[in-house]
Amino acid sequence: MVDTSLRRKITACAAMGLLLVPGCHAADHALPFAEAIGTPLDEVPGVVAGSGSVTAEHSVVDYQYPRLGGAHPLTTEIRTTMAERQTAFLENLPERGTPELSQDTTILAMSEEVVGARLTSVTRSGLRETHDASTLWYSAEGERVLPWTALFRDEAALERAHLLLADVLTEGYNLPAEQLPGLVGEVAARADEAAAAEPAEGGAARAPETPAATAEPGEPAASGEPQDPAEPVDPAEPLEGEPLDLGDPEQAWAAAEEWTGSPLEDVAFSTSGGLVARMDPDDVPGAGGDREVLLPVEAEDAEDLLSGLGYQARDAALAGTDDIPPLDEGLTAQGSELNCQRLKCVALTFDDGPGEHTEELLDMLQEYDATATFYVLGSLVEEFPQVLERTAAEGHEIGNHSWKHDDLTGLSEGGVAKDLERTNRAVEEVIGSEPLTLRPPYGALNGTVRRSADMPIILWDVDTLDWQSRNTAAISDHALAHSVPGSVVLFHDIHRTSVDAIPAVLEGLHRQGYHFVSVTELFHGDLEPGDVYTDAQPT
Questions:
Q1: Exposed, middle or buried: residue 395 (CB in 10 Å: 0-12, 13-18, 19+)?
Q2: Residue 499 CA to chain centroid, in angstroms?
Q3: Is 347 helix (H, G, I), strand (E, B) or coil?
Q4: Which residues form the signal peptide (predicted)?
Q5: Exposed, middle or buried by CB within 10 Å (0-12, 13-18, 19+), for 129?
Q6: For residues 373 and 398, what is the distance between their CA atoms, to the nearest angstrom?
Q7: Which of 15, 181, 331, 522 is the most exposed place for a label (fewest CB within 10 A)?
């Protein structure tokens, strides 16, 4: 049986013949009220906010996200999602103007079992401002990041939640059934159609009560999709195909894809223990001048909709963020925060330093929120310890480039090991950790070097030949012409002309939507000691 209590009802406006007046309200009509739970990052104890900002001639981008520990799955997913939005924004810049993209994160729930985060983005171009938001949910069980659909018991619960939202819109905002937007309208139309097709007492089918139910076969219903009344759809069935198991992470993500555009993509818990879905006021006539419309699902209705993860998330949201236990010992530790398998990433690498131009280079990288990898000489580490200390403190990666640039292929295994170990110790004394990877001088390799190097060996696929040309324009042009997603680009920060080329390289690649990462981030940490790597281009 279809739950007729969730059917659309004739509003007071309709009774007065005002059905065609969008969003009409009686003078004393109070709009539905909901208070969503959410805490800004800077107010959550124990959570460090990571941020970045790039101001260029053609655009401005900035973002803020939670750093939950080295390579924490939720941190990586949030950063990667924001990076994907940034790339799409930069790839579609208008010819004129300086549009802005601002992204932020709000914590919706946090406990040892679950963390919920709301990602928001605001795009400003001229007088136009566009808002977008979605939520992600981390489950400690399985250490997985899940979409909003995982909060619900099954797809029947998703359908019922949309019908509850339809009731809020029709009863609370006096929105006619035919004006119900998007998926809410589609689900409501299917429910009305199914209800109309059910036999009433005496065996006859009930008369249609909405435009969706009266559509001729093959004609669009209120949702805009063809409906066939000969094959009514039970609202407990999914939009297409067999019901998905929302307890399975892959199927939960598949369901999120299938339900794209749902107001529940931006779901939170209310202070009363129910759910809150946000909608754009442009989709809700009569919403007034509010920036967003909050649609409540009451606690007693939400109780039957939630999955196990949903109950954990609700409890965590209601508990607040004042007494959160540490998520792990490395809560603020740095780690891989971008999944370059999904992004346009490039690793800029600099050999033979540190030197007199390195700090100026660091200033340039900072302007583009760029992380780079520096292959340093142990002898120069002793000469420029403060430069190396700053390089590491600003998040750049340090690699081993030998003690004083000798050709390692001319040494014995013991000689190679001694040379690399000496450099490792010099670096560790300054920054507190050893280099992560090796780049042999001249890229010279043989079996002896590979057997003696207890770290991954990184070469390159884009050689700017900056040491040879000493021509700033030629260096930047070569880097821009030959860099592709996954490239490792070789420069030398000991040359003035090389450092002078970097602003054009950063601007050009940023404009194309690239993200500047360390070597280990580029390879997603999948590096083995003794193995040789030139690039991380997709195969």
A1: middle
A2: 32
A3: strand
A4: 1-26
A5: exposed
A6: 6
A7: 15
Domains of the chain and any CATH numbers: 1-30+174-242 (no CATH), 32-154+245-326 (3.30.565.40), 345-533 (3.20.20.370)
Residue at 322: amino acid letter:
D
Which distant-in-sequence residues (6+ apart) come within 8 Å of 367 by Cβ?
A: 54, 55, 506
Residue with tokens 């080295």: 70
* Nearest alpha carbon to residue 100 among 124, 119, 84: 124
Cβ-contact 8, 170 below 8 angstroms = yes
Q: What is the CA radius of gyration of the chain?
A: 29
Catalytic residues: 351, 492
* CB contact at 8 A, 117 and 133: no
- Beta partners for residue 118, in sequence order: 106, 135
Q: Are strands 60-67 and 100-110 parallel, antiparallel or unpaired?
A: parallel
Q: Please give the Cα distance from 539 to 486 (Å, whole number).
A: 10
Residue length of the chain: 539
At residue 6, what is the residue type?
A: L
Say if residues 187 and 159 touch (Cβ distance below 8 Å). Answer: yes
What amino acid is encoded at 100 in this protein? E
* Contact between 505 and 514 (Cβ < 8 Å): no
Q: Would you report the helix, strand and coil content of the chain in percent, each value rounded to 5?
A: 35, 20, 45
Contact 379, 355 (CB under 8 A): no
Q: How far is CA 480 from CA 46, 92, 363, 490, in A?
A: 41, 19, 20, 12
Contacts of residue 335, Cβ cutoff 8 Å, sequence gap at least 6: 69, 70, 71, 72, 75
Contact predicate 25/174, CB 8 Å? yes
C-alpha 539/C-alpha 537 separation (Å) is 6
Structure tokens at 311: 């109950």
Cα 397 from Cα 350, distance rounded (Å) = 10
SS3 331: coil
Give the pLDDT of the chain (539 residues) as one tens digit per residue.
333 333 333 233 333 332 333 334 433 457 788 899 999 999 998 888 999 999 999 999 999 999 987 679 999 999 999 999 999 999 999 989 999 999 999 999 999 999 999 999 999 998 899 999 999 999 999 999 999 999 999 999 999 999 999 999 999 998 999 999 999 999 999 999 988 887 655 554 444 343 333 334 334 333 334 334 334 334 444 445 678 899 999 999 999 999 999 999 999 999 999 999 999 888 887 776 667 889 999 999 999 999 999 999 999 999 998 766 555 544 444 456 899 999 999 999 999 999 999 999 999 999 999 999 999 999 999 999 999 999 999 999 999 999 999 999 999 999 999 999 999 999 999 999 999 999 999 999 999 999 999 999 999 999 999 999 999 999 999 999 999 999 999 999 999 999 999 999 999 999 999 999 999 999 988 899 999 999 999 86
Report DSSP state, residue 14: H
Identity (one letter) of the amino acid at 255? Answer: A
